[in-house]
Amino acid sequence: MRLVSYIDRRRSAARSSFGAVVGTDIVELAWPGVTTLRQGLLAEGMQGLSRRLAAAGQAPSVALADVELLAPVADPGKILCIGLNYHLHAQEVGMAVPSHPSVFARFPSSLVGAGQPVVRPVESEKFDYEAELAVVIGRAGRRIPVAAALDYVAGYSCLAENSVRDWQRHSNQATPGKNFPASGAFGPWLVSPDEAGPLEDMTVIGRLNGAQVQSDTVAHMIFSVPELIAYVSTFTELEPGDVISTGTPAGVGLSRKPPLFLKSGDVFEVEISGVGVLRNSVIDEC
């Protein structure tokens, strides 16, 4: 199952909703009082949403081409991102392999949906690309064991976890460089684990203007997805709709000679096998 959040602008009063992608259409799954995917996961979980899709008879509500896609989870309670989580990326930036995950937070306002432009802020020209696998939590849990961690996953998505590098390095905290409004992207949809396939088979690819700049397999992560879920859930309770972005492969613009940073007119794509392609153009902040 592929789930999207969207704005239907065909109506006289545009409204946001969520639903399941069936072919080139969307079957709306919202119901009174539950209009976001996070609310749907909190109320019924992935199994409940699957039952709602079956009950709807897959009757399309709107064509995928007629909506504006939002981030799959438009209102997450938490967005937790992992730094330095691929061996070759640690090597390219000259840092030791960490003994514990490096965790920082992003705010929902820092991410746009598929097809929407990401914004390079006026404060910096060092706007870097980062292709990442995003994990969306489907069940609440605290101190989740590694062996059971994947049972808490609602699905997977693509995330362009871009960085404003000079602001990221103002201190040893990455937060300022990760939260400029609309500087990253998330989407196009959440793919359920059964449709996405095994994690170890996933390849994370970043393309800039059609040229591949990043590529690695999820199997080469320093900390696996189950290990990340177990670690994060030790210090905070994970809830349905929470997002964990799992780190970027080698090939970032900062490490290239000369550096390769995003500029207005560029198009950055994140492709993850079994999940999909997230494509966004870049504009300068007005």
Automatic annotation (TrEMBL):
Domain of life: Bacteria
Positions of the Fumarylacetoacetase-like C-terminal domain: 78-282
Keywords: Hydrolase, Metal-binding
Regions that span the bilayer: none
Keyword Nuclease: no
GO terms for MF: hydrolase activity; isomerase activity; metal ion binding
Cofactor: Mg(2+)
InterPro entries: FAH, Fumarylacetoacetase-like_C, Fumarylacetoacetase_C_sf
Coiled-coil ranges from the UniProt annotation: none
Family: Belongs to the FAH family.
Protein name: 2-keto-4-pentenoate hydratase/2-oxohepta-3-ene-1,7-dioic acid hydratase in catechol pathway
Organism: Paralcaligenes ureilyticus
Source species taxonomy: Bacteria, Pseudomonadati, Pseudomonadota, Betaproteobacteria, Burkholderiales
